[in-house]
Structure formats: C-alpha cells, structure tokens
Amino acid sequence: MKQDDLGSQLRQSIWKELSHLGKLARVAQARTDMIRASSYERRKVCGKTGCRCRQGRLHREMVVAVRVGRSERLVSSRGFKGGRLLELASNWRQFRGARSQMVRTFQRLIEVFDQLGQHRQISPTKLGIGEQSR
Questions:
Q1: Tens digits of per-residue pLDDT, 65-88?
Q2: How far is CA 75 from CA 45, 46, 68, 128, in A?
C-alpha cells in the first residue's frame, strides 16, 4: 500500500467516526423522559388450586425494577403506570447504550488520530538534522 493511500484511509476513518458521533449525539439531544430502571419478564405461580401454573405453565408478566431510595420496587407493566414505566426504562437503556457506543467511538477516533500522526511524521534525517558531517 502506498503512503498516500494509508493517509487517505486514516482521514476517511476519522470522518466516519465523527459522523457516527453525530448520530449518537442525536440520542442525547432527544427530548424524551427516562427513568433509571430495568425491565424483564417474571414468571410466577399464582397459588390458586387447579390453575395451569401448578403444572409448570407459569404466569408471565413484564415488570420494571425501579430503585427508590435504598430499596428496589417491582412494578407490573399491567398496572396504571406500568406501560409508561416500560417506555421510560427503554429510553434509559437506549441512552446508556448510546453513551457506551460514544466511549468506544472516541477510543477508535483517538487511535486513528494517533496512527495518522505517526503516518505524517517524517524523520529528522530527511531534513538533514542529526547527520554527521565529515
């Protein structure tokens, strides 16, 4: 690979990473509310005699785990606020995912930037510096 080709590829990589950062920034700029919570499916036995859950076909429901003070509260998604909590928890997950991607993108950007700096650096001997005159 020619020297100019490598420099061109590195510069293109920088623009690609910057473009990706712009897309991630749009997630941060969105005006969506969020709550620091996690959602998951819970399976349980209801306790009624003769219910299907007694034969191993457990009842399934989505719950949202929300930290309130020092304790964690589970809220069923079927309740009054459950659907909204699922949406808010999803917004939180999306925001945190974008943040993680942003960190990795910045790391790649710095690596490419350093590679470009190394690529563009010339030896002092090419300028006649450090050569011993005889």
A1: 988 889 998 888 887 677 888 899
A2: 17, 17, 12, 74
